[in-house]
Amino acid sequence: MKIVTTIKEMQTFSKQMLRSGKAIGFVPTMGYLHEGHMSLVEEAVKQNDCVIMSIFVNPLQFGPDEDFDRYPRDLKRDEELAKQAGVDVLFYPDVKDMYPKERTTRLTVQERVDTLCGDSRPGHFDGVATVVMKLLQIVLPDRAYFGMKDAQQVAVIKGLVEDYNVPVEVVPCPIIREEDGLAKSSRNVYLTPTERKEAIQLSRSLDVATKAIELGETDPVIIKDLIFSLLKQTSGKIDYVEVLSYPDLGNIEVMKGKIIIAVAVQFSAARLIDNKVTTSQEIAIGV
Ligand code: AMP
Q1: Which of 3, 32, 276, 284 could form a disulfide with 186 if both were Cys (CB 3.0 to 4.6 A apart)?
Q2: What residues line ligand 1, using a CB cutoff of 6 Å?
Q3: Stretch 19-41: mean pLDDT, rounded?
């Protein structure tokens, strides 16, 4: 596995790949890799000739009181895992190389951000859109892989790619979970043992909500109440519980078409998110 640390070298490498007709699959991450990240690599390996993974903890997407400084990092371990998973190039740029000077333009995400994490983390998706746009211009991939764990991020990036005609296929990948259902996340290491046990309520509440929908419940308010009652049993602070259309993330009055059920809970040192995207075909409701 090749390790690249400068933008110039990365772009030169990618241009050579493209000129020789090789398809590039790209997996952007913030590192501290786990099976969720690996599942994206697995998919990228299947569909491309060359797989590039980036590890970059992007300061722009963290708020002033968020966990940028203490975001978990372990490059040596990540290198080993990336190599084993079949990554061809690990791109590990420096913050000073990515943001060397005051920018002359600014990307602001207009839609799909006034709810969920966009509402609780102002400016977060502007930071995500900026770094993803930069990484796509540097890595020049044919396909880019994103986890549905961050379903709002997928919706925002799809919009970005459409708006700016970026010639890349955005490939959403399913959420990878621990055995008890907790969605894998780099931040799970910051849960106390008690919180770790409580954290299964996130996925459990989504399962219960799905079951209720399958049994015929069509009112999003009732679904949200059901989820609230389960999340309230944890010591965490509920950030949001939402049932929205997907990918537009608009409010809905009845469960119809593609919807997302999404939750976020702030524990003492980790904010966890989880979601389930489903369609009215999968759930037996009186459409
Ligand atoms: P991160 O390093 O947290 O920025 O995540 C990098 C990519 O991995 C994003 O596209 C995430 O959505 C994806 N990802 C993170 N956790 C999971 C998971 N449990 N299952 C699937 N994809 C994930």
Answers
A1: 32
A2: 29-30, 36-37, 39-40, 146-147, 149-150, 173, 175-176, 183-186
A3: 98
